[in-house]
Amino acid sequence: MNELQDLTALLRSNTPFILIETEDEARVIDLFRHALKNVWRALYRWSITEGLRRFDLDREDEADVAPDASATLHAIHSETQRGIFLLLDFHPYLGYASTQRLLRDIIQRRHCLEHSIVLVGQKIELPAELETLAVRFKLSLPDEATLLKMVNDEADLYKRENEGRRVVVDQNSLKAIVKNLRGLAMNEARRIARHLIFRDGAIGAGDLPELAKLKFELLNRSGHLHYEYDTTQFADVAGLSRLKKWLGHRTEAFINENLPVGLDPPKGILLLGVQGCGKSLAAKAVAGSFGVPLVRLDFGALYNKFHGETEKNLRDALSSAEQLQPCVIWIDELEKGLASSNSSEDGGVSRRVLGYFLTWMAERKSKVFLVATANSVDELPPELLRKGRFDEIFFVDLPDHAARGEIFRLHLDKRRIDWSSFSLTRLAENSNGFSGAEIEQAIVSALYAAHAEKISLSESVLTMELKNTRPLSVLMAEKVEALRAWAQERTVPAD
Predict the structure, then answer these.
(1) 10 Å Cβ neighbour count for 68?
(2) Out of 5, 317, 367, 399, which could bridge 224 as a Cys pair, Cβ 3.0 to 4.6 Å?
(3) Is the overall model pTM greater than 0.85, yes or no?
């Protein structure tokens, strides 16, 4: 059944109290006008600015009742013809006991006709006494055909307002834009489409990153997700050959809409490893290789001192991520957000957060690929590590000789330094036990030293910085070896 049929069924059954949460009031009004073709009722609209006005299919009367909430409810209570009353942004006026009582009398049909009261607003919070009496009606989101028509309408509007100049349209980009507008209400999708069209009079591939950013800003009203603008490609990541191959086998399955029977889209991976070995960079590369937006979830920012708010924050964040699909959600240092799940010191909040997170991981059907990173495996809840939570658990070890040479080349090239005069082999030998982050920092330190001496960066200066650096594999040798020993039989090497 479509939403018109569902609404018609509610009205035919004389449902007394309906809630519709939306900011698209025009769509609600149009929907009820169409419903009158199947269910005859007098149709009224109320707002604090216009008061109570009857507007059926072919009429719209002037208000003849004072616009305040109490007078409006008294008028509805005494109405001699059954009606449907759309009350726009009425819920803030329900704080008075007398107003609540009068509304309950209408809903429960005490000494009045069988009216239908419909509250329409963006976010409706009711007193507990009224919440139990309400039926929440959710508007369906527009499908691709509806969105395509809307985009074409906006293109026609641009033509009319720009002296007949047509919008330059790339058909492949148009299909991608319509696809990415799914999950938004019509008014939100229209605002984005209008922005993309009117900024340059064209629809092309360059609009897709801007669309992703705008869509994220709309959906992430809670602020618990962070849009990562700087993704990368695996060509800019040294090593990780097994991880690259594993993702390469699943890229098409994640992007493609039409999968073979029995083949589900990939769900996610956990990257364990030594600090500074490129786990965060790999997460960015996953999004870049898939060609989808990357959003980062900070578990620490979810926690709230009020009861139930932490779990709600997690639900809202994951729901926003699902509306961005297809996308990659990145959780950095997962152990810091879930490590205390066995503790009772927080009143069980961490356990409830973990429980909801595990359920979401297991049951989600959306194309949201999860990349979680962790440094301390012993701090992770065991429930998270069992087979099936993640598609695979990869261990990112310290880079080998070949990978270290490639890391030197990448970072020197990034800083526009001619690396042909450097022996990458010798640099790799002198940086044994270094992580990728430590190699980059050695290059930065060498650049500072060369600048202070008023000389160009040379291999000798860089080698000196390497010799003066004590990497984490030396400072924390016991912990690094313990992590390696744990991962040897339990994870898949990323390289």
Answers:
(1) 13
(2) 317
(3) no
C-alpha span between 300 and 291 (Å, rounded): 28
Statement to judge: residues 37 and 50 lie in one domain: yes
128, 250: one domain:
no
Please report which confidence band the pLDDT of residue 198 belongs to, taking 50, 70 and 90 as the band edges. very high
Residue at a domain's end among 396, 417, 447: 396
Q: Are 312 and 222 in contact (CB under 8 A)?
A: no
Same domain assignment for residues 27 and 121:
yes
Residues in a beta bridge with 372: 270, 331
Domain that holds residue 430: 401-475
Secondary structure percentages of the chain, helix, strand, coil, to 5: 50, 15, 35
Are the C-beta atoms of 193 and 187 separated by less than 8 Å?
Answer: no
CA dist 23 and 85 (Å) reads 17
Total domain count, the chain:
4
**Within-domain flag for 286:** yes
Give the pLDDT score at 63.
77
Q: What 3-state class would DSSP assign to 123?
A: coil
The string of DSSP codes covering 144-194 is HHHHHHHHHHHHHHHHHHTTTPPPEE-HHHHHHHHHHTTTS-HHHHHHHHH
The pLDDT tens digits of the residues spanning 30-59 come to 899 989 888 888 999 999 999 999 988 666
Decide if 487 is inside a domain. Answer: no
Per residue in 375-410, pLDDT (tens digit) is 877 777 878 777 778 888 898 888 889 988 888 998
Return d(Cα 355, Cα 358) in angstroms, integer: 5
